[in-house]
Design a protein that fits this description.
Blueprint lengths: L5 E2 L2 H7 L12 H5 L24 H17 L6 E4 L5 E13 L2 E12 L2 E12 L6 E3 L12
Antiparallel strand pairs: 1-5, 2-3, 3-4, 4-5, 5-6
């Protein structure tokens, strides 16, 4: 269950060189993000996981993680950070779409777009950075009923 990544037409993305429209969380979702977060894990790779080929190699996975951290730390809302594989037709883009304060943390909703050859996925995630912990914590919105928090 939970929210599945949106399938994306890779040919259209490559031709137009722009990301699909992001899914925005409704205002009530801000209260759900407060406090409960997780460290970086394989859910960031949507359907590109090791048990569901194709998947990213370790170098590509590091590139994606670096792009997400770069976008969340340095990019303004709607600025895009891109990465590309050196060895094949694979890559991704990250775009922060909304920044807000909850309790003692700064949170950002962001769109992640990944592709390998003709398979592409896009999904909205949330990451928060607070004064009580070091680094970013991620909320994956992967529970039954989470769909109601998306526009």
């Amino acid at each position: 269950m939970g929210i599945t990544p949106e399938k994306v037409n890779i040919n259209k993305i490559k031709k137009e060189r722009k990301l699909p429209n992001p899914n925005f969380f409704i205002p009530d979702a801000m209260y759900v993000t407060a406090g409960n977060g997780y460290r970086w894990d394989l859910r960031q790779f949507m359907d590109f996981r090791f048990w569901s080929p194709p998947y990213f190699n370790s170098k590509e996975a590091k590139q994606h993680e670096s792009a997400v951290h770069m976008a969340l730390t340095h990019a303004k809302d709607f600025e895009i950070v891109s990465w590309y594989s050196e060895s094949r037709d694979a890559g991704g883009k990250v775009r922060p779409i909304f920044t807000y304060q909850t309790n003692a943390s700064l949170c950002r909703d962001y769109q992640s777009f990944l592709y390998i050859d003709k398979k592409a996925r896009s999904k909205t995630f949330t990451a928060c950075k607070g004064i009580a912990w070091k680094g970013l914590l991620f909320n994956y919105w992967d529970w039954p009923g989470a769909e109601k928090y998306l526009n």
